[in-house]
Design goal:
A hairpin with a 5-residue loop joins strand 7 and strand 8. The relative contact order is 0.04. The strands form two sheets. A five-stranded parallel sheet has the order 2-3-4-1-5, with helices on both faces. The chain folds into seven domains: 183 residues, Rossmann fold; 64 residues; 119 residues, no CATH class; 102 residues, Alpha Horseshoe (Serine Threonine Protein Phosphatase 5, Tetratricopeptide repeat); 137 residues, Alpha Horseshoe (Serine Threonine Protein Phosphatase 5, Tetratricopeptide repeat), CATH 1.25.40; 223 residues, Serine Threonine Protein Phosphatase 5, Tetratricopeptide repeat, CATH 1.25.40; 41 residues, no CATH class. Helix 31 packs parallel to helix 33 and helix 46 runs antiparallel to helix 47. By secondary structure, it is mainly α.
């Protein structure tokens, strides 16, 4: 009736209203029964509701693509933000090589993938493949082909790293680990989530990265790792890191790892020792197919238009190069460049007769053909030095400025039109220009050596020592190369230049401090004094507004770089000025609130510390966090610095013992820091100078807590055995409690330090001590899955001779036993251990939950099975375990159904769980699963045979304490799949709850128009039923009347409501 007279022929709002009013009155005055009126109203209301639902669905369908697009964009942006944060934290270099395009050749390396070794390596779990060859043999080309091949199968994560002699960011093993960790984080949400949980305010160390890499590999599953040019990692760095990297991968549990590692390098002696015993090895020097690749490369190059020789000449060249190449693509490439300049066949024959024997001989001839003038040689050598020592690749403009720079003249540079041609002409043969992507993904053209062997050639000691060697004029060592670039940087930073080298200044602003050190400070002389000086305008510009060094003075930088001579000159200059007291220079804080002595102590600058102390620096001065220099040195493990600071005479004659006991703002002493970091020598030194083992910080932790938490057993032993200052029993140290009530044994057990636990127990620690939450060390070990720690604690004899069985039954403040903790986390081995030591499966916590509840809630089917099948202590029927109820009346089946654990549901059924059990609110597992939108669980529950053979249809009509059926729950939560499933099993659309609401009402309240449509469509299939006259219907009509408080609509709807008065209501 509400939609009647709404067509276009009946114009006018009030006309329609009056007609409807007459119809309403006719129904009542004419004697029609209220039932007939309600039937018509119900029919029209359904029609109107269906029309509204259709309209809403049409709008939703139109908006859905836009919503999906926005959601995808938001998700992509959020993911990029997370990865950007992880990148800033890990600081990995760009995974791509500088000249990636040149590391790929079409139709090459196909033979490698047809080789049996490749197939064997691909199939072998945890296989390691080492490919070695001479310099320039095309190892990086092969490596890039391998990476491209592996990328074709996206089913497995692939991570890779190119060591690169021309990029300082890719010359150490920390960069390798950081890059692999970051790439794995981008492979999956699980890996990314793990890494986010590990993220801290400081970048991780190499050892921390190795641990992260191991855990990420476990999460990622089958992982391929490719590492190119291991030999381009400096030998000293290889000694420190590469062996640890490989050992760390191989030490992983074979059941938890599945990786394939491939490494390429030259056969250096240390690499040979490291890699000679791996599962797969290939020498490119001996591979026949590799020689065929070289031959094909020569043929393809000779076919280019730039070589205009006759076929017989090309054939002669090909044979000569193949014979002499020794498998080196680079050697071939350089000879072809030389042959390109030949204009006759006689020239070709002459060049072939004089082919150099190897790469070094080739480099010598390149330099001999270069401009021999002294000025050109010096400029060329300077470019080589700077490229070799630069901390990041140099841009074209920077190399040009280096080449043209004249230290003795301020003449502006002549503009150069073609920068690339200029560089390749002035420094022919040994340099290459490639693309490089910086941290901001900006592209640059940079200059590098053509190969690592070219840099090695120039820095060879043979050329330095032999004055007659052709390369002697160009040779240099690392020190002279770094000194040259340091001078250039300091020159570029000067502000008194009319036309400064702006491109070089940009490099110098970022990297000058990395080229200046105590080793070369005297050689830098006036350049260093002019820049790094109090009141220096050049330094003021560099550290001015917008700089991250804004609060640092030139003196701070002198101390940080350990420039003792320079710092002494600055202090002497200040002393000569009466208006500038020397003490303020020593105490003025840097940007981190630290004094000069703090900086020197942190960086282990022993001579600088002596210098500062001799000029009045205070040992007891504190930074903004309350740390003294002793704290800083102790934290870093600098025992020599700690000794200097502790033994320096106090300015006021005070007892220097106080220095080792001084507390910072959080109450920690230097001994806390040294113990936490495991610096045994520093701890011993501090103790010998009066540090107290039993001092506690603001959180109540002693140094023993700190050392135990980090697993430093040697430090723990030292602290426990150190005589107490007051002669007290040192046993108390291993029983000391922090503010959370935890003992050192709690800390050691929580972090799986078995040796520390054993040591503490031998010194009197108590296994049964509880923290403020009632947890024992056994709780902590069980909760984290530390099997060996839990076994040690359970089997340790009780101090009072009591039955140790009680340890695995101990309850914390929540009433949970260690078995609850282990079951909740799915730690099957720990659960088995606890059960074997007397843990009770049927123990319930303060909420009435048993370990079966905990395991079922988290979906640990293996643990659930173990607990259900464990013999009952009293011989009772174990079936009762899967029917046990907590204080809310929930059974394990309720818990499994709520969280969608299908396997656990089936397992519980097989052990006697009841589908129709109700909780304290009257909800069955079907109710729970329906409210959680778990359609697969609902199907399992509905289709499980009833124990009494009853019709399972009753399950989807079961009512809880509020009279609601599972369909009410699913409708309110908007689960279309569950609604359809319940309806197909006999759920009733018109069932009303205690409040008179049908599932349609609940869907409307949940703002789920799609569910309303599903329910109404299903209802329309049956004969429409008249809703009973209920208080709820009357209230709904009155609510609608309130929408129109004025005019006829409000009166009409109120009139309908008054006709529905039920005498039974008066008794309510």
């Amino acid at each position: 009736m509400t939609t009647k007279y709404c067509n276009s022929s009946n114009k006018g709002l009030w006309g329609a209203v009056s007609r409807r009013t007459r119809d309403y009155l006719r129904e009542f005055i004419g004697g029609s029964e209220v039932k007939t009126a309600l039937e018509k109203l119900q029919h029209l209301t359904n029609a109107e509701l269906l029309a509204a639902v259709a309209h809403n669905n049409a709008i939703a369908r139109a908006l859905q693509p836009k919503i999906d697009s926005v959601a995808n964009t938001v998700g992509r942006v959020a993911g990029q933000a997370v990865l950007r944060g992880l990148r800033e934290w890990l600081q990995p270099p760009n995974a791509q090589p500088l000249n990636s395009a040149k590391k790929r050749r079409l139709d090459s390396c196909g033979w490698f993938f047809d080789d049996d070794k490749w197939e064997s390596w691909m199939a072998q779990r945890n296989g390691v493949y080492w490919i070695y060859g001479n310099a320039g043999a095309g190892k990086s080309v092969l490596c890039s082909s391998i990476i491209e091949k592996l990328k074709q199968d996206s089913a497995f994560p692939l991570v890779y790293f190119y060591f690169d002699f021309s990029d300082n960011a890719k010359q150490d093993c920390r960069s390798l680990a950081a890059s692999l960790v970051f790439q794995l984080a981008a492979c999956s949400e699980a890996c990314q989530g793990y890494l986010q949980r590990q993220q801290t305010t400081t970048s991780p160390t190499y050892d921390e990265l190795l641990v992260m890499l191991s855990n990420l590999m476990k999460l990622a599953g089958h992982v391929f790792i490719v590492i190119d040019a291991l030999d381009e990692c400096p030998e000293q760095e290889r000694d420190r890191g590469s062996a640890r990297f490989l050992e760390h991968l191989c030490e992983l549990d074979s059941n938890e790892k599945d990786f394939h590692l491939l490494v390429t390098s030259r056969p250096e002696a240390d690499i040979w020792v490291l890699m000679s015993s791996v599962t797969h090895i290939l020498s490119l020097n001996d591979a026949r197919q590799h020689q065929e690749d070289v031959s094909a490369f020569i043929a393809s190059r000779l076919d280019r238009d730039e070589h205009h020789w006759a076929p017989d000449v090309k054939d002669k060249i090909r044979k000569a190069l193949i014979t002499r190449s020794n498998g080196m693509f680079l050697w071939v490439d350089l000879q072809l460049l030389r042959l390109r300049d030949c204009i006759s066949s006689a020239d070709v024959e002459g060049t072939l007769d004089e082919l150099p024997s190897d790469l070094n001989d080739t480099y010598t001839r390149i330099l001999q053909r270069s401009n021999p003038s002294q000025a050109s040689v010096e400029r060329r050598r300077r470019v080589f030095q700077c490229i070799a020592s630069a901390k990041r690749p140099l841009f074209l403009s920077q190399v040009i400025e280096i080449y043209c720079m004249n230290f003795n003249s301020r003449t502006p540079l002549v503009p150069i039109q073609d920068c690339e041609r200029f560089i390749l002409e002035k420094c022919p043969g040994l340099l290459n220009i490639v693309d490089w992507t910086d941290w901001n993904d900006a592209q640059h053209r940079i200059v590098q050596f053509i190969h690592f062997s070219a840099k090695e050639y120039l820095t060879s000691t043979d050329h330095l020592e032999s004055t007659t060697a052709p390369a002697h004029r160009y040779s240099f060592d690392d020190y002279s190369a770094n000194l040259t670039l340091a001078k250039i940087c300091l020159s570029a930073l000067q502000v008194d230049i009319d036309t400064p080298p702006l491109s070089l200044r940009a490099y110098a602003d970022c990297y000058w401090a990395k080229h200046v050190s105590s080793r070369n400070e005297d050689d830098l002389g006036d350049l260093l004094d002019a820049f790094l000086q109090i009141d220096s305008p050049s330094f003021a510009r560099w550290s001015g507004p917008g700089s991250e060094h804004g609060q640092d003075t030139a003196f701070h930088h002198s101390v940080r770089l350990n420039l003792c001579h320079h710092a002494e000159r600055i202090m002497a200059q200040i002393l000569s000025d009466p208006s500038a007291p020397n003490q303020s220079l020593l105490t003025i804080p840097d940007r981190y609130g630290r004094s000069a002595l703090h900086v020197a102590a942190s960086l282990r600058h022993v001579e600088m510390c002596h210098l500062l102390l001799s000029h009045g620096a205070l040992v007891n001065s504190t930074d903004r966090d309350g740390d003294t220099p002793v704290h800083n040195a102790a934290s870093e493990g600098h025992s020599d610095i700690v000794r200097v600071l502790l033994e320096h005479p106090a300015a006021d004659g005070a007892d220097p013992t106080a220095r080792s006991r001084v507390r910072k703002e959080n109450g920690k002493t230097p001994l806390h820091y040294a113990a936490s970091e495991g610096h045994a020598d520093v701890c011993r030194l501090l103790l010998s100078h009066g540090a107290l083992v039993d001092d506690s910080d603001e959180c109540g932790a002693t140094p023993v807590h700190e050392a135990a938490r980090e697993g430093h057993s040697d430090v723990v032993r030292m602290l426990l055995e150190h005589p107490a200052a007051d002669g007290a029993d040192p046993t108390a140290r291993c029983r000391a409690r922090n503010e959370d009530g935890q003992t050192p044994l709690h800390d050691a057990a929580s972090w799986a330090h078995v040796d520390v636990c054993r040591l503490l127990l031998s010194h009197g620690a108590l296994v049964d001590d509880t923290d403020k939450d009632g947890n024992t060390p056994v709780h902590d070990a069980a909760a984290r899955g530390y099997l060996y720690v839990a076994r040690l604690l359970l089997e340790h004899p009780a101090a009072d001779g009591a039955d140790p069985t009680v340890r695995c039954r101990a309850r914390n403040e929540d009433g949970q036993t260690p078995l609850h903790k282990a079951a909740s986390r799915g730690l099957a081995d720990v659960c088995r251990l606890l059960l074997s030591h007397g843990a009770l499966v049927d123990d319930s916590d303060e909420c009435g939950a048993t370990p079966v509840h905990e395991a079922a809630r988290e979906g640990h089917s293996d643990v659930v099975r173990m607990l259900l099948e464990h013999p009952a202590a009293d011989g009772a029927d174990p079936t009762a375990r899967c029917r046990a109820r907590n204080k809310r009346g929930l059974s394990p089946l309720h818990e499994a159904a709520r969280w969608g654990h299908a396997d656990v549901c089936r397992l519980l059924f097989s052990h006697g769980a009841l589908v129709d059990d109700t909780d304290g609110d009257g909800d069955t597992p079907v109710h729970i699963a329906a409210s959680e939108r778990c359609s697969n669980i609902v199907r399992i529950l509905l289709e499980h045979p009833a124990t009494d053979g009853a019709d399972s249809t009753a399950r989807c009509r079961a009512r809880n304490m509020d009279g609601q059926t599972p369909l009410h729950k699913a409708a309110y939560m908007g689960s279309a799949d569950v609604c359809r499933l319940l309806l197909s099993h006999g759920a009733l659309v018109d069932d009303t709850d205690e409040y008179g609401d049908t599932p349609v009402h609940r869907a409307e309240q949940g703002k789920e128009p799609g569910i309303v449509r599903i329910l109404l469509e299903h209802r329309a299939k049956d004969t429409p039923q008249v809703l009973p006259r209920t208080r709820r219907l009357r209230e709904n009509l009155r609510e609608r009347a309130e929408v129109w408080p004025k005019g006829p609509w409000g009166a009409i709807l109120e009139d309908f409501a008054s006709q529905l008065e039920d005498p039974a209501d008066e008794s309510d």
